[in-house]
Specification:
Layout lengths: L2 H15 L16 H12 L4 E6 L5 H13 L5 E2 L2 E3 L6 H18 L16 H5 L6 H11 L4 E7 L6 H16 L5 E7 L3 H4 L3 H4 L3 E6 L4 H14 L3 E2 L1 H11 L3 H17 L4 E2 L1 H14 L2 H11 L8 H10 L10 H12 L5 H11 L8 E4 L6 E4 L4 H11 L5 H11 L1
Parallel strand pairs: 1-5, 1-6, 2-4, 3-4, 4-5, 7-8
Antiparallel strand pairs: 9-10
This protein binds adenosine-5'-triphosphate and magnesium ion.
Magnesium ion binds next to helix 3.
Length: 414
């Protein structure tokens, strides 16, 4: 390979290390989350307990679910951990059929895999197990009881929030059923939600059996590790201020750590350098914006569009993204005031931008914000958590954010 080819090759390689749109599926590149991992493992080891992993979109729920098996691997005994995604049309039965088909796939991929000895290869296929009868909480329990004699089943049901109420209720029944019979199998439900109650209404009846594991945003240290580990794998280095900038922009969302990390390493490699500087990160942000999910870009533009040249929509939205929030991400109009002052240099009072906030939570601006609470006490939040860092990145590129302000953010994020 010629030298230029080698650089180009390394830039391509960055795409295997930084994967903004693919959940992690390997322990070696999984960063942090020690407390959550430990809780899942405790659940698995406790007969009769099951888990619900919930949190904002994009915080790393699927990645965590994917590595459970790896983390348990060292503990001896065979594990089979299929993961399936639910969709809006799935029923309780169709979801379980997917689970058992997935188990069959895993089994066929592992030649010496679990329960192989002397067994017919189709023993675990959904059709062999259930015949024409759709799986029910009872039949699922019976099948899992038998299966758990060969290996420890950990059944990961992802995108659980997409299921309709009826199948969710059946899942609650099934979990109760498995728990009452102390079956040595663990169901792990994964979904986007602020609370478990949003996902399972009659959650009270399964409360003891279903351990809630909330995925918070990642602490700055874990985001730092994602970027550092990635760059180390690429045999690259990063300046301290550049690293801090990425951590600040990611806002605890690993997706952005990967997205900016990917572009920053490529910007550097394209100029035949292995060092990521602050200037490199700034260039990378422009690219990251272009490469952000189409849906995010469209939603952003339709939220701030206006026929009037001088309007405040962009500034108010940026101030919302920079506003101090509570732990669920909500802020009040009052919290928007201070960033507004710093961005525009003018002291706008709340009534000046109240209408903007109102429109942001209305369909005509795509409900970019979600509004809750009573009149005069409204609280707002970005409907899509991935939007907030995107808006801040737009602000950085447009040089709207005073340097000192980002610095402040650095401290609170660290
Ligand atoms: N612990 C981690 N270490 C390194 N990267 C991570 C980690 N957790 C998540 N990521 C990365 O963050 C991004 C989002 O992760 P993931 O898809 O697991 O989130 P999610 O919560 O399941 O999202 P969604 O709600 O959209 O399903 C992915 O690019 C993934 O590679
Ligand atoms: Mg997911």
């Amino acid at each position: 390979m010629t030298a230029p080819e080698q650089w180009a090759f390394r830039a391509l390689d960055a795409g295997r290390v930084f994967t903004p749109n693919t959940p992690i599926d390997e322990k070696s590149v999984f960063s942090g989350r020690k407390a959550q991992i430990r809780r899942v493992i405790d659940v698995v080891n406790q007969k009769g307990q099951h888990a619900m992993i919930f949190g904002e979109r994009g915080v790393g729920k699927t990645s965590l679910a994917n590595v459970i098996g790896d983390f348990l691997g060292g503990m001896g005994g065979e594990i089979v951990a299929p993961r399936v995604n639910c969709d809006g049309n799935d029923t309780f039965a169709s979801t379980w059929l997917k689970v058992f088909d997935q188990i069959e796939l895993i089994r066929n991929r592992t030649p010496l895999g679990f329960g192989r000895a002397g067994q017919d290869t189709s023993t675990y296929g959904a059709s062999a197990l259930f015949g024409d009868a759709p799986p029910t909480p009872d039949s699922v329990r019976r099948v899992l009881t038998t299966m758990s004699e060969g290996a420890l089943p950990i059944l990961i049901v992802d995108e659980f929030d997409r299921l309709k109420q009826e199948p969710r209720r059946a899942f609650a029944d099934a979990i109760k059923n498995l728990s009452d019979h102390a079956v040595r199998a663990t169901v792990v439900l994964v979904g986007v939600a602020d609370s478990v109650d949003q996902l399972i209404e009659e959650h009270q009846s399964v409360a003891r059996a279903l351990v809630q594991i909330q995925m918070p945003r990642m602490p700055a240290g874990e985001i730092t590790t994602i970027v550092q580990t990635g760059l180390q794998r690429l045999e690259m280095t990063i300046a301290e201020d550049a690293l801090r900038r990425i951590v600040l922009l990611a806002q605890g969302l690993p997706h952005y750590a990967h997205l900016i990390g990917l572009h920053a390493s490529r910007v550097a490699l394209d100029t035949h350098s292995t060092d990521v500087t602050l200037a490199v990160v700034d260039q990378a942000i422009t690219k990251a914006i272009e490469d952000a999910q189409q849906s995010i870009r469209n939603a952003y533009h339709s939220a701030i569009r206006s026929s009037r040249k001088h309007n405040l929509f962009g500034d108010v939205l940026l101030s919302c993204a920079l506003a101090k929030t509570d732990e669920l991400g909500f802020f009040a109009a009052q919290d928007v005031r201070s960033p507004m002052r710093k961005i525009t240099g003018k002291d706008y009072d709340i009534p000046t931008f109240a209408q903007h906030l109102n429109e942001f939570s209305d369909a005509k601006r795509g409900k970019i914000l979600k509004k809750t609470g009573q009149t005069r006490r409204y609280r707002y939040r970005f409907s899509d958590p991935l939007m907030q860092p995107f808006v801040i990145m737009q602000g950085v590129v447009a040089h709207k954010i005073p340097a000192g302000f980002l610095q402040q953010g650095d401290d609170s994020a660290a």
